C-alpha cells in the first residue's frame, strides 16, 4: 500500500460494555480512527474504502459476539408524516430514510438519517450534500429511487451513469440505485457500465414485494450478492398482493406475513447473511389494514398510529424485552380474590393519592362468564377479527379504564407493566392498546400478542414503554387519560375467553396490570396577560413572525405569521399588521384554509410550567370596504388537526374603518388548560368574506399606540424539588453519589435506593432536605462492594407525600481488590467453567441455592485459575457460586436451565 505523508489521523481505543440477555457483560474494544476530512477526500477511493471496509469488518465481527438490538433494522418513512418521529421510536429503528435529502429537525438523535437522491440530481443537491456530510448529518448516501419506474425516479441508465461521478466525488459511502428489480435489465446494465468505468458503488440497494415465501426471498438475496459481489441494503420489502381489489380480496393473511417476517429477520442476523448490512420494512401509513389493498396485510402501523402486532414484532426484533417487576407503581390492579369475574369498575389495589380512576369497565359487547375462579377479571364474546379492530370497537368488545390527576397535581407515565392474562384455545391472542385525552380521538400505542395455546394458559405480556408518548407526560389536573384494551383474534365468540389475572393459587396473588411514572405538584397563579402585540411601530404591513410586544417569561412564541396566500401591502400602510387578498368565499373558511389565506401564532410553555389559556383579548382591526367580514378562530395541539373555537362577524363598512372584536372565552376548552411543558398550542385566524382580491385589506391594529391583540391565562409552576444533576462514581472501591438541586419547595427528604445486579431496588439511606429554595448540594458514600453492577436512584418526597424518582445511575466495581470471578455459560445446562483469582491452599468453590442450601463444595488446586464443574444434577433455578480463600470471599449468581 502506498504511503500518504500528508494523511493526518488520530486513533483511540475504547471499550464498550454490553449486558447480554444472560446477564453477562461483554467488553468489546473498538478502534476509533479520525482522518483529516479534507485530505481523506483526496485519497484514491479504492484505498479509502479498503480502510473503511476493514474497520466495518472489525465492528461486524464484534457485533456477532452479543445478542443486542439489531444495528441493521431501519424504517423507510416520509418525514411529512406528522408523527414520523414517534413512529421511528415505536419501531426502535436504528436508521431511517424518507426518500429525501434533508434531515428533519424532528429526527430522533438515536436514529441515524440516510439521505437519498430520488431522481436526477441538481448542482444544488451536491452542494447541500457536501455541506451536510461535513457537518455530520449522515454517514451514507442512497442512489436513485426506482429509476426504472416512470412514476418514481424515472432516470435512464445513461443519465444515472452521467451523474454518478459527481456523487462518487462527494466522498460519501454510496449505495446503488434501487431498481424495481435488482436482477432486472436496468440494474444489470447500470452495474455493468459502472464496473467497466471503475465507478465506485459501495453497496447494492434492493426492493422486493412478493408473496410470503421466506425461502424464495432469501434465495434472491444470495443471487443478488453473487451477481454483484457487494454488501446489500434491503431498503424496501414487504408482502404484497398486487391483484387485491374490493372484488378480489388480498389472498394473504396476517399470520402468513408474520411468519415470513420472523423467518427472514432471524436469518438476516446470522453469519450466513452477514452480507446484508441493513434492512427496512415498507409500511404505508395512509391506509388501514384491510383485504382490498395490496399492502393491507403488511402494515406496521394501524390507522390510529399505534403498532400492529406485525409492528410489535418488528419493533422488538433482536431486543431483549424482559418483564421487570413494577417499582412503586402509581396505579396497579391485583384482581386476586375478586367477588366476580366481570364486576364493573374494579378499582386498583394500588393508587397514588394524587390520582383518580374509573377502574376496569367492560364494554357492552363483553359477556360475563360463570367461572368459579374469582382471581381473574374478564369475560367472553371477544372479536374474531384477526387484524381490524373496528368491528370490536363498534360492538363494545373491549375494556376501558382511565387515570386523572387531582387538583394541583400532574402525572407522567413511563411504563405499563406486570400485564398478566389468561386466554383459552379459542380466545383472543392479540391485544391492542389505545389511549385518548379527554374526549379526543383514540390513538394507538401497540398491539401485544401471544401464540395460540392448545389449552387455557397464563401469559405474561411485554412491558410497554410509555415515556415516548408526549401526550402521556405532564398530564395535569382537569385532563383525563382514557386507556382501552381491545382483545381480538378469537376463533370463537362463544367459547373464547380472556381474563386479566391468572389462577387460583396463592402464588399468583400479585399485580396483573400497573403503571409506573412520576407525580408533580403545581401551583396555579392568578389570571394574567400572557402575550400582547402593539403594532404602532410596524411598517409595510408588519413584520413576518412578529414577536409579541409582551410575552410572559414562562412561554416561547412563534410570533404572528402570515399565510403564503395573502399579499403584503405597500410600505405606506404603517402602524398596522396585515395584508390583502383574503378569501372571497362567503360560505365559510375552507377556501381560505386551502389557499393559505390566514395568519397563525403559537405558544409553548417552558420547562416546569403549565399554562392555561382563558381568553383572547378584544382585538382591534382595520379593514377596507372590500375586506373580509368573517373571522374563524381555531386551535391545534402540536401537529394535530385544527379545531374550531368560534366565528366572529362584523357589518361591512362603507369605507376603511376600525373595529373592536369581542372577547373570546376559551377557558372551557379542556385541551387549552394546563398545557404541559414543551407542548405547542397553535392558533389560526382565517379572515373570509372579502369582495375584492386587490383591495380587500385586513389589519390588526387601529393606528393608535395601544395593545391591539393579545391572550390571557394563568401559569402553574411545578413545586417539587428540581434535580440539576445526579452522579455515581467508583472511588477506591466505594461508590460516591453526588447530586445537586436547583430548587427545593415544599420538599421533605431524599431516599437513596440501590439494587445490585438483577435484584430489586431497596432503601439504602435517607437524606433530609436542606430546605433552600435556591437548591443545595448533597453526597453519600456506599461502602458495599460486589462484582455485580450497582444501580442507584433517588426517591424524592414532598411534605404532602408527593413522590418523584430521579433517573438511574450505575457503577461497576470491576477492579474490586484487583480480582475477578466469572463463569460460562450463564444460563448453564450441564457444565460451567468458573474463572477465579489464583488459588492458594485455602481456596474453595461452593454452590449455594438462593434458599441458602449448600449443594457443592470443591477444594481448588493451588495456582489454578479456573475449574469445570458438573451442574447437571442441579434443579432448574437460581444459584450462587462462592469463591473463598484465606483473605477474601466473592459470589456470583448463575441460572441453571
Automatic annotation (TrEMBL):
Entry's SUPFAM superfamilies? (Trans)glycosidases
Q: Which InterPro entries match?
A: ASL1 (IPR053183), Asl1_glyco_hydro_catalytic (IPR024655), GH (IPR017853), Ig-like_fold (IPR013783), Secre_tail (IPR026444)
Task: Give GO terms for biological process.
Answer: fungal-type cell wall polysaccharide metabolic process
Q: Which domain of life is it from?
A: Bacteria
Pinpoint the Asl1-like glycosyl hydrolase catalytic domain residues.
Answer: 82-314
Q: Report the residue ranges that make up the Secretion system C-terminal sorting domain in this protein.
A: 823-893
Name of protein = T9SS type A sorting domain-containing protein
Amino acid at each position: 500500500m502506498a504511503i500518504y505523508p500528508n494523511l493526518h489521523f488520530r486513533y483511540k481505543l475504547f471499550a464498550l460494555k454490553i449486558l447480554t440477555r444472560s446477564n453477562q457483560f461483554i467488553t468489546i474494544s473498538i478502534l476509533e480512527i479520525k482522518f483529516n476530512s479534507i485530505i481523506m477526500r483526496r485519497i484514491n477511493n479504492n484505498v479509502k474504502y479498503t480502510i473503511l471496509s476493514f474497520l466495518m469488518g472489525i465492528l461486524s465481527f464484534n457485533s456477532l459476539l452479543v445478542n443486542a438490538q439489531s444495528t441493521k433494522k431501519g424504517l423507510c418513512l416520509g418525514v411529512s408524516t406528522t408523527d414520523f418521529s414517534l413512529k421511528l421510536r415505536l419501531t426502535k429503528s436504528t436508521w431511517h430514510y424518507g426518500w429525501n435529502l434533508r434531515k428533519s429537525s424532528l429526527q430522533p438523535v438515536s436514529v441515524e438519517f440516510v439521505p437519498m437522491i430520488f431522481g436526477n440530481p441538481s448542482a444544488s443537491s451536491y452542494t447541500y450534500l457536501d455541506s451536510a456530510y461535513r457537518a455530520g448529518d449522515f454517514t451514507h448516501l442512497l442512489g436513485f429511487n426506482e429509476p426504472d419506474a416512470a412514476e418514481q425516479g424515472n432516470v435512464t441508465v445513461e443519465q444515472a451513469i452521467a451523474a454518478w461521478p459527481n456523487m462518487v466525488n462527494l466522498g460519501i459511502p454510496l449505495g446503488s440505485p434501487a431498481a424495481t428489480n435488482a436482477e432486472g435489465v436496468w440494474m444489470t446494465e447500470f452495474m455493468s457500465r459502472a464496473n467497466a468505468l471503475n465507478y465506485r458503488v459501495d453497496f447494492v440497494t434492493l426492493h422486493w414485494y412478493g408473496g410470503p415465501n421466506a425461502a424464495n426471498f432469501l434465495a434472491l438475496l444470495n443471487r443478488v450478492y453473487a451477481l454483484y459481489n457487494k454488501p446489500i441494503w434491503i431498503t424496501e420489502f414487504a408482502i404484497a398482493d398486487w391483484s387485491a381489489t374490493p372484488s378480489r380480496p388480498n389472498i394473504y393473511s396476517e399470520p402468513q406475513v408474520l411468519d415470513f417476517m420472523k423467518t427472514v429477520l432471524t436469518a438476516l442476523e446470522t453469519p450466513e447473511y452477514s452480507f446484508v448490512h441493513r434492512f427496512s420494512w415498507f409500511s404505508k401509513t395512509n391506509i388501514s389494514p384491510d383485504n382490498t389493498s395490496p399492502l393491507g396485510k403488511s402494515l406496521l402501523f394501524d390507522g390510529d398510529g399505534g403498532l400492529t402486532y406485525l409492528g410489535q414484532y418488528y419493533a422488538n426484533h433482536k431486543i431483549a424485552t424482559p418483564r421487570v417487576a413494577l417499582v412503586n407503581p402509581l396505579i396497579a390492579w391485583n384482581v386476586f380474590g375478586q367477588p366476580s369475574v366481570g364486576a364493573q369498575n374494579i378499582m386498583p389495589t394500588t393508587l397514588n393519592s394524587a390520582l383518580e380512576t374509573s377502574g376496569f369497565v367492560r364494554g357492552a359487547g363483553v359477556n360475563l362468564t360463570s367461572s368459579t375462579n374469582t382471581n381473574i377479571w374478564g369475560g367472553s364474546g371477544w372479536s374474531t377479527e384477526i387484524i381490524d379492530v373496528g368491528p370490536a370497537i363498534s360492538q363494545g368488545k373491549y375494556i376501558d379504564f382511565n387515570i386523572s390527576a387531582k387538583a394541583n397535581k400532574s402525572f407522567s407515565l413511563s411504563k405499563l407493566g406486570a400485564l398478566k392474562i389468561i386466554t383459552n384455545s379459542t380466545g383472543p391472542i392479540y391485544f391492542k392498546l389505545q389511549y385518548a385525552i379527554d374526549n379526543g380521538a383514540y390513538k394507538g400505542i401497540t398491539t401485544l400478542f401471544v401464540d395460540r395455546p392448545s389449552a387455557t394458559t397464563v401469559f405474561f405480556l411485554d412491558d410497554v414503554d410509555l415515556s415516548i408518548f408526549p401526550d402521556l407526560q405532564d398530564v395535569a389536573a382537569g385532563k383525563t387519560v382514557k386507556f382501552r384494551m381491545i382483545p381480538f383474534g378469537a376463533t370463537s365468540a362463544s367459547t373464547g375467553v380472556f381474563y386479566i389475572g391468572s389462577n387460583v393459587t396463592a402464588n399468583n396473588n400479585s399485580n396483573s396490570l400497573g403503571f409506573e411514572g412520576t407525580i408533580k405538584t403545581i401551583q396555579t397563579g392568578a389570571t394574567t396577560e400572557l402575550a400582547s402585540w402593539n403594532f404602532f411601530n410596524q411598517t409595510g404591513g408588519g413584520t413576518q413572525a412578529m414577536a409579541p410586544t409582551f410575552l410572559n417569561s414562562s412561554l416561547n412564541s412563534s410570533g404572528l405569521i402570515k399565510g403564503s396566500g395573502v399579499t403584503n401591502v405597500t410600505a405606506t400602510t404603517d402602524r398596522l399588521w396585515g395584508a390583502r387578498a383574503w378569501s372571497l368565499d362567503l360560505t365559510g373558511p375552507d377556501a381560505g384554509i386551502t389557499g393559505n389565506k390566514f395568519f397563525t401564532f403559537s405558544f409553548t410553555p417552558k420547562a416546569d410550567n403549565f399554562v392555561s389559556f382563558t381568553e383572547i383579548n378584544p382585538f382591534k382591526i382595520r379593514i377596507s370596504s372590500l375586506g373580509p367580514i368573517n373571522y374563524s378562530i381555531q386551535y391545534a395541539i402540536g401537529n394535530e388537526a385544527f379545531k374550531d373555537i368560534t366565528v366572529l362577524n362584523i357589518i361591512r363598512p362603507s369605507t376603511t374603518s376600525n373595529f373592536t372584536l369581542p372577547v373570546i372565552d376559551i377557558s372551557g376548552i379542556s385541551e387549552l388548560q394546563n398545557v404541559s411543558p414543551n407542548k405547542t398550542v397553535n392558533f389560526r385566524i382565517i379572515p373570509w368574506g372579502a369582495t375584492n382580491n386587490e383591495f380587500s385589506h385586513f389589519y390588526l391594529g387601529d393606528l393608535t399606540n395601544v395593545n391591539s391583540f393579545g391572550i390571557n391565562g394563568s401559569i402553574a409552576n411545578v413545586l417539587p424539588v428540581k434535580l440539576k444533576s445526579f452522579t455515581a462514581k467508583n472511588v477506591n472501591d466505594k461508590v460516591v453519589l453526588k447530586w445537586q438541586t436547583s430548587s427545593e419547595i415544599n420538599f421533605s427528604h431524599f431516599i437513596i435506593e440501590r439494587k445490585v445486579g438483577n435484584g430489586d431496588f431497596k432503601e439504602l439511606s435517607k437524606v433530609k432536605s436542606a430546605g433552600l429554595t435556591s437548591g443545595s448540594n448533597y453526597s453519600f458514600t456506599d461502602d458495599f462492594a460486589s462484582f455485580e453492577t450497582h444501580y442507584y436512584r433517588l426517591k424524592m418526597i414532598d411534605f404532602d407525600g408527593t413522590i418523584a424518582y430521579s433517573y438511574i445511575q450505575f457503577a461497576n466495581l470491576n477492579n474490586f481488590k484487583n480480582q475477578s470471578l466469572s463463569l460460562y455459560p450463564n444460563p448453564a445446562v450441564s457444565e460451567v467453567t468458573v474463572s477465579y483469582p489464583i488459588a492458594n491452599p485455602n481456596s474453595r468453590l461452593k454452590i449455594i441455592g438462593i434458599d441458602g442450601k449448600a449443594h457443592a463444595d470443591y477444594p481448588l488446586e493451588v495456582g489454578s485459575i479456573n475449574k469445570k464443574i458438573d451442574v447437571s444434577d442441579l434443579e432448574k433455578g437460581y444459584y450462587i457460586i462462592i469463591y473463598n480463600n484465606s483473605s477474601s470471599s466473592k459470589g456470583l449468581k448463575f441460572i441453571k436451565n
